[in-house]
Amino acid sequence: MRLLLLSNSTAPGRRYLEHAGEALAAALDGVRRLVFVPFALADHDGYTAQVAQALDSYGVHVTGAHEGDPIESLDAAQAVFVGGGNTFRLLRELYARELLAPIRHRAGRGTVYIGSSAGTNVACPSIRTTNDMPIVQPPSFEAAGLVPFQINPHYLDPIPGHMGETREERIEQFLEENDVPVLAMREGTWLTRVDSSLTLGGEPVGARLFRRGAAPEEIESGADLSPLLEIAGRYR
Amino acid sequence: MRLLLLSNSTAPGRRYLEHAGEALAAALDGVRRLVFVPFALADHDGYTAQVAQALDSYGVHVTGAHEGDPIESLDAAQAVFVGGGNTFRLLRELYARELLAPIRHRAGRGTVYIGSSAGTNVACPSIRTTNDMPIVQPPSFEAAGLVPFQINPHYLDPIPGHMGETREERIEQFLEENDVPVLAMREGTWLTRVDSSLTLGGEPVGARLFRRGAAPEEIESGADLSPLLEIAGRYR
């Protein structure tokens, strides 16, 4: 299995996906055709065109999952990229178009899976650690489960003076209900999975690992997180 | 129908519910017994004790909806207060304990409904404009529908330099999918409904009203919002 899970798609002052160029190049090695899943945003054509342009320099031909027969496109592709936006809208469409199981199946058999933000959320067992607003109701929060733990993308450390719950408090509430580790990935970081190997990459600010009953653990960029692939979470 | 819907329960530097004392006193006029719904937090006893203490000076006796027979408690009470915390956890418990319909029914027949934050979210037709993390999956996003529009509590204006989507962008995404007005209530504000009259109260910073196809509208504290009770929204 080959996964590249990005916390975010755009870094300040850089072009779309530019900050993760090296990781993308590695993930796209040997990929000639890629299916882009644009359902997290409303404008499927526009979003797909943006991605086609961004991946053109990698020599990758991009097809939108909203065009033609997406199963045929998946079968002809060596990679699938699930873009960010609203996680609830994305997951609802994946169910409505019966694409969740086919994507899970192909990722398990060697099709490269790339996700950013909402696309990273749906690579988890559920979307229960998304930051997004539940603007539509998917039939289930269950997602692709390409890793056995939860990811919180765009992780934000508490902002001094900001009222309301911090992200950390939200994740602690998740852990009150579910016994599943949450990898909180700061902006500019990504996870690379190659079969049983899992590595954190990107910005040195890294990630925080939250587990029930334990203090959050700082994870530096470059860390080997392979043991996380062995966990068996319990969802309420 | 008598509703008091608070954006938040605690203002900086003030005791729990203190900032809304005047509005609370008006809502609790004639109320001797109140049922508190603590399910948005994990510690039901502790949360109920906190509310009992805060409402003691109003001469109100508080019973937790997790204690004894909640339907009997509701029948003996003149008010119900649904506290804040995680909206998904709250709504899941309201369904699991079969309390959503009884609360809706009683609010329609004169039982005062007070909500703060998550308790304000569940007074709307759905929880689709909550800010909370979907840590558990309720059977439906449909909520009590005591008003026919959506509320976004704890509304935050964009923070300069903050990466990630703004609250405004999240609400605009909601409007892409649903044709329902969203009243985005800044901290320290509340809505008071008495039958067909609806008024914004609290901090002068007020609220913003988002509608599909229109620029957001600033609403000052004190504004009469009664026309909002006439709308018929369309959810996707």
Structural class assignment of chain A: alpha/beta
Main CATH class of the domain at 2-148 and 186-202 in chain A: Alpha Beta
Instruction: Describe the oligomeric state of these chains in a short phrase.
Output: homodimer
CATH topology type of the domain at 2-148 and 186-202 in chain A: Rossmann fold
> What number is the mean pLDDT of chain A?
96
Stretches of chain A where pLDDT is under 50 for at least 5 consecutive residues are none
Secondary-structure element order of chain A, N to C: EHEHEHEHHEHEHEEEEE
Fourth-tier CATH superfamily name of the domain at 2-148 and 186-202 in chain A: Class I glutamine amidotransferase (GATase) domain
Number of DSSP E strands of chain A: 11
Biggest sheet architecture of chain A? 7 strands, mixed
Question: How would you describe what is shown here?
Answer:
2 copies of one chain form a homodimer. With 236 residues, chain A is of the alpha/beta class. Chain A has 7 helices and 11 strands. The first copy, chain A, has helices at residues 21-27, 44-56, 70-76, 87-96, 100-108, 118-121, 167-177; strands at residues 2-6, 33-37, 61-64, 79-82, 112-116, 150-155, 182-186, 189-194, 197-202, 207-210, 217-219. In chain A, the strands form 2 sheets. In chain A, strands 3-2-4-5-1-8-9 form a 7-stranded mixed sheet, with helices on both faces. A 4-stranded mixed sheet of chain A has the order 6-7-10-11. The longest helix of chain A is centred in the first third of the chain and has 13 residues, at 44-56. The interface between A and B is large, with 36 and 35 residues.
